[in-house]
Design goal:
Length: 182
C-alpha cells in the first residue's frame, strides 16, 4: 500500500473506503454507454462531436457536464481500442501522488475538489497519467474530427508528459481514507 491524496467535494470520514461517483450513477451511466456505442460506429476521420450533436445522437451536449461526458466517451473509446489493459476512467477513483498536486486540482476544480485527504491505495491497481493532457474540457475542439480528439486521448493513455504535468492515479482498487489534510 502507498499513500496518495484525494481531492473531493466533501469532507470524508477517516478509515472509510472511497466509492467512485464518476460516471457511476444512472442516468449518467446509460447516456455514457449510448454515446460510446455511437462512437464505436462512427468514421473518426470525418465525424465531429458537434456533428453528433447536430444529428441528434447526443442532443444535450450543451447542458452542464455534457461537454465533459463527450470527452470522457472519446477517452474511453481510445482506451478500449488501444490501451485496454489500463483502468477505465468510468467508475474510477482519482488520486494524486503528492499533496501539491491535490492542491492544484482543488484550485483548478474547486467545485469538485474542496477537501483534500491522504489515502492508502495499492500502486499496482491503477495507472499514473497526466491530467494536463486532457484538461480543461473547454480546450477540446468539438468541431475537429474525432480522430484528432482520439489522438489527444492516446497521449493521455500512453502516460505522455505535457511538460507541466498534473499527475492523477486512476484506480478501481480499494482506497482507504487515512487523514483529512484541509
Amino acid at each position: 500500500m502507498k499513500a496518495f491524496y484525494h481531492a473531493d467535494s466533501q469532507a470524508l470520514t477517516i478509515r472509510t473506503r472511497l466509492i467512485s461517483r464518476h460516471l457511476n450513477r444512472e442516468p449518467q451511466r446509460s447516456r455514457f454507454s449510448a454515446l460510446l456505442g455511437v462512437l464505436e460506429g462512427a468514421d473518426l476521420k470525418t465525424t465531429t462531436a458537434t456533428g453528433l450533436i447536430d444529428a441528434g445522437l447526443f442532443a444535450r451536449a450543451g447542458g452542464p457536464g455534457e461537454r465533459e461526458m463527450l470527452i470522457e466517451a472519446v477517452l474511453e473509446y481510445a482506451r478500449r481500442a488501444r490501451f485496454n489493459g489500463l483502468p477505465s476512467r468510468a467508475g474510477a477513483l482519482f488520486l494524486t501522488p503528492t499533496l501539491g498536486e491535490a492542491k492544484r486540482f482543488a484550485e483548478l476544480v474547486p467545485v469538485r475538489c474542496g477537501h483534500i485527504h491522504c489515502c492508502l491505495a495499492e500502486p499496482d491497481d491503477g495507472a499514473l497519467l497526466d491530467w494536463s493532457l486532457i484538461a480543461p474540457a473547454a480546450s477540446w475542439d468539438l468541431d475537429a474530427p474525432l480522430d484528432r480528439l482520439a489522438a489527444m486521448a492516446d497521449a493521455y493513455w500512453s502516460a505522455a508528459n505535457s511538460g507541466d504535468p498534473l499527475w492523477e492515479f486512476v484506480t478501481h482498487g480499494q482506497v482507504m481514507v487515512l487523514q483529512r489534510m484541509e
